[in-house]
Amino acid sequence: MTTVAARPATMAQALTRALRDAMAADPAVHVMGEDVGTLGGVFRITDGLAAEFGEDRCTDTPLAEAGILGTAVGMAMYGLRPVVEMQFDAFAYPSFEQLVSHVAKMRNRTRGAMPMPLTIRIPYGGGIGGVEHHSDSSEAYYMATPGLHVYTPATIADAYGMLRAAIASDDPVVFLEPKRLYWSKDTWNPEDPPAVEPVGRAVVRRRGGSATLLTYGPSLPVCLEAAEAAREEGWDLEVVDLRSLVPFDDETVCASVRRTGRAVVVHESTGFGGPGGEIAARVTERCFHHLEAPVLRVAGFDVPYPPPMLERHHLPGVDRILDAVGRLQWEAEN
Amino acid sequence: MTVMEQRGAYRPTPPPAWQPRTDPAPLLPDARPYRVLGTEAAGSADPDLLLRLYRRLVAGRRFNAQATALTKQGRLAVYPSSTGQEACEVVAAAVLQDRDWLFPSYRDTLAVVSRGVDPVQALTLLRGDWHTGYDPYEHRVAPLSTPLATQLPHAVGLAHAARLKGDDVVALALVGDGGTSEGDFHEAMNFAAVWQAPVVFLVQNNGFAISVPLAKQTAAPSLAHKAVGYGMPGRLVDGNDAAAVHEVLSGAVRRAREGGGPTLVEAVTYRVDAHTNADDAGRYRSDAEVETWRAHDPIALLEEELTHRGLLDDDTRTAARDAAETMAADLRARMNEDPALRPDDLFAHVHAGSTAQLREQAEQLRAELAAEAEEAGR
Q1: Is B187 in the A-facing interface, judged by CB distances under 8 Å?
Q2: Read out DSSP for A144-213?
Q3: Residues A297, A301, A306, A312: is their CA dihedral positive or negative?
Q4: Which chain A residues have a beta carbon less than 8 Å from that of B201?
C-alpha cells in the first residue's frame, strides 16, 4: 500500500475531484452546462472531465438555462443522473420555472413513480468583485420550494463529500457553491477523501458558551474569525455550520442554542424574507424558554446586490457580527 | 467620384469566409397544409389504417363529449376539450411504438387515452384527484403538463438520453399554437436540433390561445416555418385530415428513429369547443367561423373517403359507435364513484425519504384527523 501525503487542496479542486469520482463510479452521471466541456467551466470546476469521460458525459450545451435544466429533467426521466452547472447565481433564474414546476414536483405529482435524481450546481454569493448579476445569494427561493434539497458546503471536505452525496441522492439537490471559498486551501489527501458528517446534519465548528452563531457557506469563515475576535471581549462563541438548509437540522441547532441561551443567524442573503427569518423563527418556537435575548440576524442589507466597490459595506463582516453579539449581552442584562 | 475613390489606396480587409451552415430549402414547409383525404393520394391510403383511425376518431369524439358532460355534472373540475382536434390526438398515439414516449400538454388527455392509459387515471388531474393518476413508465407517457411548452425540453432530454444509451426510442411532444411563443419552446427546438435528438414536435394550431388568435401570437409565415431557424425540417399538415397527419407524423418518427434528427410538424386544426367550461368563446369568435370548421370535421372527412371507397357499411359504423358508447358508459360509471384520497399521501412523495419537519407535520395532520373522527363519532 502506498501512502500519499496530504497536500494543500482548494475547494475548487475538491469539487472537481467529487465530480470525477462520481462519474467514474456511475456511468449514469452526466455533467452539462455552458462552458463545462473544453473550457472546464469558468471556475474550472469541470476541468478535464470532457477529456476523460468524453463530450457525451460532460457536455457543452447551448446557452439557455431553462433548456439546460429542462433537458436534464428528460435525461433523469430516462435513468441518467444529470449534474447541471448554472454558471452564476443570477444566471439560474431563467430556469426557475423548470426548477419549481417540474424538478421539485415530479416525484410528488407522479406519486413517487418518477424521481428526479439531478444536481444543480450554482456558484453563489459575493465577495469576489463580480459585476452585476454575479453575486446573488438566492437560497431563500430554493428553500421556499417544497421538493428540493438545498446544500451549501463551507469546508473543503464538505465540498467533496456533500457533492458526492448530492449526486448519489435520488432527489433533486440545489448545490450552492460559495464562490469566494473556491480558492480557500486545506491539507487534504487526494487519494483518500475525508469522511464527512451525513448531509442533513449541522456541525458545531467551534465550541463556546456565550452565544451561538448559526451560519453556512461563505459566512462560516467570517463567523469563525468573529468568534476569535470575540475572545477579547470575554465572549466565548459557538459556531454552527448548517451545511444543508433543506433538510434543516433543528436538533443540533436547538441543542446549541439551549446551551448558550443566545443566537445570531449570519448570512449574506438579504434579511427581509431571507433564510435568517425562518431560522430565527424555528429557534424561537423551540427554544423560547431557554433564550436570554431575541434571536438576531446579521444579513446582507435589503438592497439589490451592490456594485463591487461597495460590497464590503453590504456583506456581513466581523464587526457587524460582534456588534450583534454585543446587543445580545445588552438584552440579557437589561 | 465615389467615396471609395476619394479614399485612394484604402482597401478594406474582406470579412472571413462565410457560408450558410445548412441549406434552408429542404427544411421549408409546404406552402399549404398537406392533405390526403379528398385528393388523389387518398386512393393509395391503406384501408386497414383508415378504418382503424376511423374507429379511434369516433371513440375520441365520444370521449370528449363524455368528459365535457362530466364537467357539467361537477365530476371533473375542468376539461379542456379536444373536440375537432381528434385526428391529431389519436394519430399522435398511433404512430408510436411501445418503447417510444409521448409528452402531452393539458389538452391532450385523448392522446394519453389513445396510448392505452386508463381514461379514469388519465383524468385524475382534471378531476382534482392526484396530479398524475398513471405511472408514466407503464405506457411511456409523461405527466400532462399544465405550464406551457415546459414538457418540450423534457422530450428532448429523454430522447437524447435514450440515444446515448443506444436505444432507438423516439419522443413525440405535443404543444399548442400559444405554447410556441414560450421560451421553453424555443430552447427545446434549439437543443433538439443541436443535439440531433430523436424527437418530433407536433404543434396543434387550433387557432386560439384561450382567446388570442394566431395573428396576435406570431408574425411567422406559419408555425412550421419556425423550424428552419433552428435547422430542422418544418412540415405543415391539415390537422383534421387523419390520413395526412398519420403520413407526416410517421415520416417524422421514422426519420428520428433512423438518426435523422428532429422535425417540427404544424397541424392546422380548430378548437370547436371553448378553451374550457370556464371560457366564453362567443366573446372572441363568430358562430359562422366555427361552422366553417365544423364543415371540415375530421370524422366526416374520413367517413366520406371510406364511403367513397366502399369501405364503410352500416355495420362498421354501428360497431364503431357501439364501442364508443360502451367506453363512455364505463367512464361515466367509474367517474361517478367518489375517489378515495388518503390525507397521509400529502407527505408520502415529497422526497425519497422524509425529513424531521415533514414527520412533524404528518403527525399534526394525524392528530387533526383523529380529532375530526372523534367529533364526527360524538
Answers
A1: yes
A2: TSTT-EEE---SHHHHHHHHHHHHH-SS-EEEEEEGGGTT-EEEE-TTSPPP-PPTT--EEEE--SSEEE
A3: negative
A4: none
- What would the DSSP string read from start to end of B140-185? TBPPPB-STTTHHHHHHHHHHHHHHTT----EEEEEETGGGGSHHH
Cα–Cα separations (whole angstroms), residue B95 to B18, B100, B161, B172, B264: 40, 10, 21, 9, 15
| CA-to-CA dists, residue A157 to A18, A184, A187, A243, B217, angstroms | 10, 12, 10, 12, 52
Q: Taking CB atoms and an 8 Å cutoff, what residues of chain A touch B155?
A: 74
Give residue A241's pLDDT band: very low, low, confident or very high (50, 70, 90).
Answer: very high
For an interface test with A, give the residue of B125, B158, B163, B345 to mutate (most A CBs within 10 A). Answer: B158
> How close is the nearest chain B Cα to the Cα of A228, in Å?
33
Q: What is the pLDDT of residues A69-103, one digit of tens each?
A: 999 999 999 999 999 999 999 999 999 999 999 99
φ/ψ (deg, to 5) at A84? -95, 135
Contact at CB, A62 and B194, closer than 8 angstroms: yes
Q: Report pLDDT digits (tens) over B67-111.
A: 999 999 999 999 999 999 999 999 999 999 999 999 999 999 999
Minimal C-alpha gap between A334 and chain B (Å): 35
Q: B122 with B112: CB under 8 angstroms?
A: yes
Half-sphere exposure of B3 (CA within 13 A, CB side): 1
CB of B364 less than 8 A from some CB of A: no
ipTM: 0.95
pLDDT band at A334 (very low <50, low <70, confident <90, very high): very low
CA distances from A29 to A76, A114, B21 (A): 10, 17, 32
Neighbours of A81 (CB within 10 A): 23
* Active-site residue, from A30, A102, A134, A149: A134
| Residue type for position B206 | N
Confidence of residue A187 (pLDDT cuts 50, 70, 90): confident
Model confidence at A331, pLDDT cuts 50, 70, 90, reads low
Whether B85 contacts B126, CB under 8 Å? no
What Cα–Cα distance (Å) separates residue B30 from each residue in A157, B127, B290? 60, 40, 25
Q: CB-side exposure of B103: number of CA atoms within 13 Å?
A: 31
Q: How far apart are CA B256 and CA B272, in angstroms?
A: 32
Query: How much is the pTM?
Result: 0.96
Selection from A12, A169, A6, A194 nearest residue A85 by Cα: A12
Instruction: Give CA separation, B70 vs A51, B124, B239, B339, in Å.
Output: 58, 13, 26, 14
Interface touch B352/A170, C-beta < 8 Å:
yes
Q: Is the preceding peptide bond at A247 cis, omega within 30 degrees of 0?
A: yes
pLDDT tens by residue, A137-148: 999 999 999 999
Instruction: Tell me the nearest-neighbour CA distance from B146 into chain A, angstroms.
Output: 9
